[in-house]
Amino acid sequence: MHSTSGWVGAVNGFPLQNHANRMIFAHVSNDSHFIMKIPTHLFTRPTSAKKTDKIGTNTAVPETKAVQSAKAVQDIVSIAGIPEKELTTSVRKALTSLIEEVNSLRGQVGQLQDQLSQAEKVADLDPLLEVSNRRAFVRDLNRVLAMAKRYNTQAALVFIDLNNLKILNDEHSHKTGDRALKHVATLFSANIRAEDSFARIGGDEFGLILMNSPKIKAQQKMSELSSLIQSTPLKGDHHDIKLGIAYGIVDITGGLSAGEALENADKEMYKDKIRNRTF
Question: Which residues of the chain have pLDDT under 50?
């Protein structure tokens, strides 16, 4: 915050509050000052004014910053009830400078909020598959665990493993292995509901939360998804490559931590691998 001759821009560092009114302090001279509340809308910039062209059509004409600031100053003077004799040139300059600086800061805050929102989205995505990552999945799982504890809601947690990824990498290429992961992730994402959560939680491991689904209902859904993956091979350079998954399912119940729930589902998945000899 800069200072203008004869004017202090703020009280206590001047952090503007995000409420209906803002408090402004201006020092006009050595023996006079004033404090006023200024409505938030006075710090927003009008985008344009309208004029009528020769054929009667309204066209938007952007206002200059000087015009916008002058209007804002006039509004402040009207609301604060500053006597005309005290509205000196220095006071006008102080108010104009303050308004321009506040508008600039609001713009910077908006940009930072956009950047933060984008950073949060990136932090929750798996960079290869563009589905949620373990961080986002654990957060969703904690939310569902809390709902189960408080409201006794029903949901199922599924721990999924893509079979034979190492063989794919060794016999074909790591690029083929990556394509297999993307293929499976795409099939899952396209065949679950919006309220369900799907994520890559490890190298060849995925997590799935099926909302409003007890374990028996989740078993039916996973049987369908497993059959879909087996019947939708990955297109290879010379031939199609069949894929398969192993999975374990547990009910999401209150009292468990996210780590405990994932560990239980992982154990069930390992039992499925043993039954079907898919290592």
Answer: 1-46
